Amino acid sequence: LTTTILLWQSAFGSGIARRDAVHSAEQHRQEAVKLAKEAVDHSKQGRGDAFLTSAEAALQSAMKAGKSEQVDAAIAELTRAVEQGNAGHADLATTQVEQAVRHLSEK
User: Fold this and answer.
1) How many other CB atoms sit within 10 Å of the CB of residue 8?
2) 39-43, 74-78, 103-107: which range is least confident on average?
3) pLDDT by residue (tens digit) across 76-101?
4) For residue 4, what is the DSSP state?
5) CA distance 30 to 93
């Protein structure tokens, strides 16, 4: 009986862990979208420091959002956006964050 219970736990335990990892990745993706949209709003209000803070936070969340073509493309856009924002190119940085939102919103 103990062996049966242990086998049952290991068989179903891995499925639960996988489901939790997928759920967590989805939460990070949603958080990245929210933060990226905040960054765009900050940029449109001329708040460069707030833009960078939100864009960097969106990048960190996107990096935890699992592996997919869309997430990888969003990470690349957010990375460039932060670089452009630090260089003072707000318009280009904002466009790149908007692209990241589009990528992260694709399923």
Assistant:
1) 10
2) 103-107
3) 999 999 999 999 999 999 999 999 99
4) H
5) 20
* DSSP class of 65: S
Please choose, from the candidates 57, 62, 65, the residue with its C-alpha nearest in 3D space to the C-alpha of residue 26.
65
Length of the chain in residues, anyone?
107
Angle of the 48-63 helix axis to the 90-105 helix axis, nearest 10: 30
Q: Is the pLDDT of residue 49 over 60?
A: yes
Concatenating the DSSP letter of every residue in 4-49 gives HHHHHHHHHHHHHHHHHHHHHHHHHHHHHHHHHHHHHHHHHTT-HH
Neighbour tally for 43: CB within 10 Å? 24
End-to-end CA distance of the chain: 43
For the chain, what is the radius of gyration of the CA atoms?
18
Q: What is the DSSP letter of 106?
A: -
